[in-house]
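#struct-queue
[09:14] JT: dropping the first one here, sequence first, then the structure tokens:
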Amino acid sequence: MDGARDAAILSATIDILVEVGFERMTVDMVAARARAGKGTVYRRWPSKTDMVLDAVAQMKRDQIDFDQLTDTGSLRGDMLALFDAGSAARGERFMRAVVALAALLAQEPDVADAGHEAMIEPWTQANRILIGRAIARGEVRATVDVEAIAQVIPAMGGYRSLIQRRPFDRAFLVGLLDHVLLPALGIAPAHPSP
């Protein structure tokens, strides 16, 4: 397999998904956009559904480098560091892809687990790591339900994107951190700032 070729196909998949939606999207459209043969695409992904799920998962993997998560010394700082200055444009593209992916999940409920793995799990995993750090430094009590708390922001982000069709921006994240997540962990931000 050619990593550059795969990346071009997955990027084209997201572009087409965002432009025309899952139902109207075809493998031919993706192959043409990526300048790849249709056979090349089908050798890598046996179906359009598999290709779309892999493309969305790749978008998520590209947004989070688990080996380079910033350690600011506070959970709030660490969570804010996940949202970097360049994420707004990527976030908009991702949001539009997620909305299009929602149509796929409605049509094919059996791929819901794969959709969850692609869209939500990477952020939940990053949150588990950051909450674990906060526990290790004594900022958060060790008895906290890490699994439940780690899912709060990704779940609310999904709701905002899929239901409200609004972007997951820094102001939304700050509100969730300062008024939901940190209070649930027993942390009161002294002087929250955007």
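[09:21] JT: and here's the second one, same format:
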Amino acid sequence: MPLSPRVPELAALDVLVSVARLGSMGAAGREHGLSQQAVSARVRSAERQLGIKVFDRTTTGVTPTYEGGLVLEWAAGTLTAAEHLASGVSALRGEREANLTVAASMTIAEYLVPAWTVTMRRKNPKVVTSVRLLNSADVAAHVLGGDADLGFVEGPEVPAGLDAREVARDELVVVVPPGHPWARSGPISPAELARTPLIQREFGSGTRTTLEQAVPGCVAPLLELTSCTAVKAAVVAGNAPAVVSSLAVAADLTDGRLVGVALEGLRIPRRLLAVWDRDRGVRGSAREFLDIAAGAR
């Protein structure tokens, strides 16, 4: 099946996703070993090919447009599939001496796993780590099914059959764009949050599950998306609130792209957990990766 001419090359998609995750062209350039000008040129070229403006540029960085957020979400899935293809080909060619498959929830995968994999590569270059980006419910299913050696989840409970170890903590925060009424109103009540349609992560995500336990009776979402990047873009484009991980919006709050809104009498902290099959245990390269994640706190 011939590909549409609107589909950029994988390298261009990789740069787009890095710019969105890191919030700036310069940071993405450092990650890819490119100059800021080269990254900017690749982004402009990809936008022309797509026929879509992916980012809004400001003096403080870049922010995905609403359409760009959707493109970035699809691009991330394409890159994951490409990584699986490359890993499979390497295995068939006998190129890898060891293999480690890690399944991670979206927030952990976007904001914590990259640094852990770099450390793992430096400490043990013979191990090639494959990362699968899933929501927390699917992470647990992959670990229990033997499709992943180690998992990382955000949900408040440890699924049956898994052992767990805390590797980090974060907190769910309410965010709105600067022009939203909540940005000027001060704290809101949990009841007001519950009756307001939110831009939310999909059902089964750790963020969604934690919110629904902390604030029961939330009305149906205004929009459901499967990545933090897409949620943040929709918040800005739709002038609507969301509840997201503090890890995902730290830079946005500092730069003023988003505004945090306090909840009256309520905070929503949570533990980020490594999980593994209780019967199989965790050993070898999976144990080494777990120790790296836990030691990074």
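[09:30] RK: nice, looked through the second one.
[09:31] RK: The longest helix spans residues 66-92.
[09:31] JT: good to know. The chain has 13 helices and eleven strands.
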